Structures are given as structure tokens and as C-alpha cells.
Amino acid sequence: MADTIFRRIIDGEVPCHKVYEDDKVLAFLDINPLSRGHTLVIPKEPAETLDQLSDESAAALGRVLPRICRAVIAATGVREYNVLENNGRGAHQAIPHVHFHIIPKPDREQGLGIGWPAKSLDAEEGRKLAEQIRAALT
Ligand code: AMP
């Protein structure tokens, strides 16, 4: 089991501002918030990236995420927000334990800023790629 800061928070060795806990999920305030109410929702299972997470932990996270989003909206009064989940160092994941960020977006300056370098999807490439992903899912 990797000894990350989140593992130590789950084990109660490191304090946090807890907002939610059940047998599979813990949620607490981010220590360096991008905006007021920035909350982290993590599985207790020590998976590094989302693709490594069990269906049981994924279901537990999915069940409570919208509820925690509603609570963050209610507490901050901010209705717009981003949910972010980074996987791997190159994709900005600093802590190798799955975590969903809930980041209120009160205005243009605060909250998450996103670069979105979109391109056009070629029809033939799209057909092939969708086929490959469908095949990998079976
Ligand atoms: P990421 O870049 O997606 O791995 O995000 C890691 C997040 O964990 C950052 O937003 C940090 O501010 C946050 N973080 C790191 N240590 C703590 C801690 N002890 N308590 C709460 N949040 C933390």
C-alpha cells in the first residue's frame, strides 16, 4: 500500500477538514484551494489512477459525488464548478491516490483555468478509434 499523504489522512495520522465519510469514501477540503469550497473526494482503496480502481469503489464514489457537489454549492452559494480527476504525473497528478477535485467557479479569476487545444476529429480515424475502444471494453 503506497504511503501517500491521502493514505495517512484516511488512517487519521494527518488531520483534514473532513466533509464526508463512509466505509469506502472520504471527502475533505483541499489544503491549497483554487477557490473557496475546493473539496477532494477520494476512495479509501489505495488505487493510483482511476483505471486501477475497483467497480465497488467507483460505484461508491459515483453515488456520493453529486451529493457532495450539492453540499459545496449550498455552503458556498456558487452554482458553477468543475470536477477534475488527474491521472499520472504528466497529467498533473501530484499525489498517486485517486482523487476527484470539486472546484467552485465563482468568477473568471478564481477556480480552475483550463487550456483546451481542440482539433477536428477525422471521420475515418474516429471510426477506427471507436472500434478499438469498443473492442478493448469487451
Ligand atoms: P493533483 O494535482 O490532482 O494530484 O492534486 C493534489 C491536491 O492535493 C492538490 O490540490 C493539493 O493542494 C492537495 N493536497 C495535498 N496535500 C493535502 C493535504 N494534506 N490536505 C488536503 N489537500 C492536500
Bound compounds, each kind once, are: adenosine monophosphate
What is the β-strand count?
5
Distance between the termini: 29 Å
Which runs of at least 5 residues are low in confidence (pLDDT < 50)? none
What's the rounded overall pLDDT mean?
Answer: 97
Secondary structure: helix percent:
25-40%
Which word captures the global form?
Answer: globular
Count structural domains: 1
- Rounded to an integer, what's the Rg over CA atoms? 17 Å
How can the largest sheet be summarized? 5 strands, antiparallel
Highest CATH level, the class: Alpha Beta
The SSE order reads HEEEHEEH
Tally of helical segments: 3
Which strand order does the major sheet show?
Answer: 1-2-3-5-4
Examine the secondary-structure arrangement and name the CATH architecture.
2-Layer Sandwich
Give me the CATH superfamily: HIT-like
Structural class determined from secondary elements: alpha+beta
The CATH topology turns out to be HIT family, subunit A
Strand content: 15-25%
